[in-house]
Design a protein that fits this description.
Rossmann fold; eight-stranded mixed beta sheet; about 35% helix; binds S-adenosylmethionine
Length: about 250
């Protein structure tokens, strides 16, 4: 496979994402299939109808990601938030992610800039890079920064854990509403799809919470099922006909 150097993660001899339209792919496979925007809109509507929710946990939507890389999934999420109804009371999105081999902010910017011909995304790239550049990636462990410029009454906290995925998953103090599993192809990086890790993901997922992945590999589906998810093959994107959606049932 001929991978452009900019997109190559040499640790895994794999690309961070496909160049074709990786933001559209993220929106379909992770945001669309897991109904992230609809679920955040439900929070907004609940706030309007039940002001008692304000200031409680019900104002939060918690996402977990395995494999931050250059932050394309965060970019796609932020670029999708325009479809959330404007909310007077803030909705807080906690975006907890992990990266074992963080790359410098300049490289994140160069990689994400491949999407900058899309006008709406261009300012979003700045927001993600601004947030990421405030993190000291040389220091292992948790880091937390707010992503600027999101608007619409939504606050997005980027909580990046520099280290191994299991450490981040186990460090979470609250279960996630949604997981984006995006840690390279299983063949290139079997570790991030190991059953113990996916089982830990299950333990840190709300009832009805989701896990999405671009791979439909049998062993990944089986490990997610063993972790408590009911697993379905759903619509993929572009050349990828199928993707994976797990819904936590246990
Ligand atoms: C496919 S890339 C992530 C792409 C990113 N989600 C995006 O959309 O831009 C996978 C990332 O997971 C990281 N990674 C792989 N195994 C890991 C592990 N066991 N713990 C933490 N990070 C890991 C890699 O270094 C790589 O940056």
């Amino acid at each position: 496979m001929n991978i452009p150097t900019l997109l190559l993660n040499p640790r895994y001899n794999d690309r961070y994402f496909d160049v074709v339209d990786a933001v559209a792919e993220a929106k379909r496979i992770h945001i669309g299939n897991a109904r992230i925007i609809e679920r955040i809109n439900d929070i907004v509507n609940n706030n309007v109808n039940h002001s008692i929710n304000i200031g409680t946990d019900k104002n939060r939507f918690r996402i977990g990601e395995l494999g931050f890389g250059p932050g394309r999934l965060l970019l796609a999420l932020i670029d999708s938030l325009d479809a959330v109804a404007v909310t007077v009371e803030p909705v807080i999105i906690d975006y907890n992610t992990v990266e074992m081999y963080p790359i410098p902010a300049e490289r994140v910017e160069r990689i994400l800039s491949v999407f900058s011909d899309r006008v709406r995304v261009a300012s979003r790239i700045r927001n993600v890079v601004d947030a990421y550049s405030r993190i000291d990636i040389e220091t292992p462990g948790p880091h937390s920064v707010a992503v600027p410029g999101v608007g619409g009454g939504i606050v997005v906290n980027l909580n990046l854990y520099v280290g191994e995925a299991m450490e981040m998953v186990e460090s979470l103090d609250a279960p996630r509403a949604a997981w984006f599993l995006d840690g390279h192809a299983p063949k290139e990086n079997p570790d991030i799809w190991r059953p113990e890790l996916l089982s830990a993901v299950g333990r840190k997922t709300e009832l009805g919470g989701t896990a999405t992945a671009f791979t439909v590999a049998g062993h990944v589906r089986r490990a997610l099922a063993a972790a408590g998810f009911s697993v379905a093959k759903v619509a993929g994107c572009g050349g990828k006909k199928e993707a994976l959606l797990g819904t936590f049932r246990l």
